[in-house]
UniProtKB/TrEMBL annotation:
InterPro entries: DhaK_L_YcgS, DhaL_dom, DhaL_dom_sf, Dihydroxyacetone_Kinase
Domain DhaL: 7-197
PROSITE patterns referenced in this protein's UniProt entry, alphabetically: DHAL (PS51480)
NCBIfam families: dha_L_ycgS (TIGR02365)
Tagged with keyword Transcription: no
Keywords attached to this entry: Kinase, Transferase
Single GO term (MF): kinase activity
Family annotation (Pfam families): Dak2
Naturally occurring in which organism (per UniProt): Streptomyces sannanensis
The protein, known as: Dihydroxyacetone kinase subunit DhaL
Gene giving rise to this polypeptide: dhaL
Superkingdom, natural source: Bacteria
Amino acid sequence: LTVLGAEFFHRWMIACGSAVDREADRLTELDSAIGDADHGINMRRGFAAVTDALEKEPPATPGGVLMLAGRQLISTVGGASGPLYGTLLRRAGKALGDAGEVTREQLAEALNAGVAAVAQLGGAAAGDKTMLDALLPAAEALGESFTAAREAAEAGALATVPLLARKGRASYLGERSVGHEDPGAASSSLLIAALAEVAG
Ligand code: ADP
Ligand code: MG
Ligand code: MG
């Protein structure tokens, strides 16, 4: 049984920062096709703030790490993705409570709660061509393994290509949103891949 402490969550957030930094141009390019060409910039700014905040005042618990990260995303990212990802992490962190260590199964449950909060805030459901199309299957598959979660997120992000966007800026394009990967689903896949990477 793997137990995950604050250190693990800290490393996950740092790995998210590296991944969005590395892939920022691709995320912005995806957003230039069906949005306003800022998703990579938004994510990079948000996770740079997360990294800074964690280094200044490292929280002692897994829940504390996720809640601090979520707060940073909400306060530094102007776009839709900031409040949505911020809500994901804050709600998941709240679900972990003040436990010093958690299991993968507990993290899976917490992520499911976070994903439900994102759906409620944004009013989107599976198949609407949003970050949820990667996050919903990933949180579900995390009950099985980290690798299953990574694969589910990747598949979910790629499966947004043929979809018609029903939420967010991309929905303004109607049929013209078809044929492009959703930027938020792509970034969600990066965050879950970072989790699997840190889990080894
Ligand atoms: P903005 O659209 O404000 O410029 P970003 O470009 O940073 O914000 O993020 C866009 C992404 O946010 C989309 O690709 C989509 O995945 C996600 N998104 C937008 N609106 C919603 C929503 N209502 N529910 C879930 N996800 C959404
Ligand atoms: Mg955008
Ligand atoms: Mg924008």
